[in-house]
Amino acid sequence: MANAYFSDLLSTIADRGRALLGRIEWPTGLANKSVDVAEICDALLSGRGEASGVAMAQEALDRYRGLADDQKVEFFNALASKYGPDHDALRRAFDAWRDNPSEATETDLHFQTEPRRQELFRRLNRAPGGTSALVNMREDLLDFRRSNPNHAVVDRCLSHLLASWFNRGFLILRRIDWSTPANVLEKIIKYEAVHEIRDWNDLRRRIDPADRRCYAFFHPALVDEPLIFVEVALTDATPAAIAPLLAETRDIAAPEKARTAVFYSISNCQRGLAGISFGNFLIKQVVEELSRELPALETFVTLSPVPNFVSWLRTPAAAEAGVDSSLLETLEDPAWAADPGRADALRKQIEPLAAEYYLRGRDKGGRAADSVARFHLGNGARLERINWLGDTSPRALRDGAGLMVNYLYDRNSIEANHEAYANLGMVVASGAVKRMAKAAKPRLQLSMASSN
């Protein structure tokens, strides 16, 4: 009720703001609608009145939305080259601090180091719908940044502000169920990134039964736009495969008898907020919510995909661990998973390699090679179990050789696990995973001996 009231209040303010825009008299030189976005941004930064500032912010965002991609690139080029700090003012502030070090001169020096583009983004955010528009702008920026390295300085400013505006204190946790408004449910279907939701019936099977839960984070400035959501199954034990959880026909378990909560899908919804982590807060708060509702729950675990494993099998590190071209050729034909003989032969090769991949595989930055592992290990989970043919969908076979992984969230060891990974790069894993990795050692040693 409170959240709905707040959303209605924001909508009312936005509607009045739009009505105000039509009554504002534009400053001299900006009444000509041929002026470009950068000129309006210059005027916006000139420090005019609040009302005209809102109008110019709205006009700048409207003009930006109408730009072609090449024009947007030029706009970001301008932000990178012309909207940095005022170097003369920065030099004066530095000289003042050097001559008279004090809290006042230090504070002034700090403010003078801030790029002008950062203040521009703050003023653009005053427009009705400004936050949403800036999230969408960053989505464009992430696309263009790949071929325009100079845009990185713009992204640092915008992502810094978005991280502040979307910090945990502003996020609202809502349970998603069959009574949730249809426009939100449509977005859950659209944004599901792990296990495709095929239709409304499929969605209902995931959120309506008594032994299923779905939770999402929302932000007051993005009304009815989920930021991230997690789907949960309440079960008796830790599952090894996704198909039974998503089956069209299954027995519904009594939630009060469940002992395990399974996080089987976590999806980020806003590409423009990439790099701003919500998942850690979401999992911890959902664990708290479920623990209060169902105190008999003992185990909190994921059933996670393995999106980078097959790619790793093609690396020199995997070759040292015993991977050869024949294994890779076999994996290219997904029919192997339906052939018990071929699947059993591959299992003996792949499981030890998978354990090696998780325990010692690293990306170029020295982090865990698997992107999902980085997320859960960084959150303090333990690598609990590697599940053979846990997902036989085409994408899972292509990316992860059909493997799925359980990460255990043990509330008594989350902090210690997080510290071990964050400070030492250590992958905290169960004894079963460590024993599985030992089978890869002889091949690794043989490969190293033959190369000497």
How would you describe this protein?
The chain is of the alpha+beta class and 452 residues long. The chain folds into three domains: 19-165, Butyryl-CoA Dehydrogenase, subunit A, domain 3 (Up-down Bundle), CATH 1.20.140; 168-302, 3-Layer(aba) Sandwich (Aminopeptidase); 309-450, Aminopeptidase (3-Layer(aba) Sandwich), CATH 3.40.630.150. The chain has 22 helices and seven strands. It has helices at residues 2-21, 37-44, 50-65, 69-82, 87-99, 103-112, 116-124, 130-145, 152-165, 182-191, 200-207, 243-246, 279-293, 309-312, 316-320, 325-331, 340-360, 371-378, 394-400, 414-424, 431-438, 441-450; strands spanning 172-175, 212-218, 228-235, 260-268, 299-302, 382-387, 404-408. The strands form two sheets. Strands 1-2-3-4-5 form a five-stranded mixed sheet, with helices on both faces. The protein has a two-stranded antiparallel ribbon with strand order 6-7. Helix 13 links the parallel strand 4 and strand 5 (299-302). Helix 7 packs across helix 9 (152-165) and helix 17 crosses helix 21 (431-438). The longest helix has 21 residues, at 340-360.
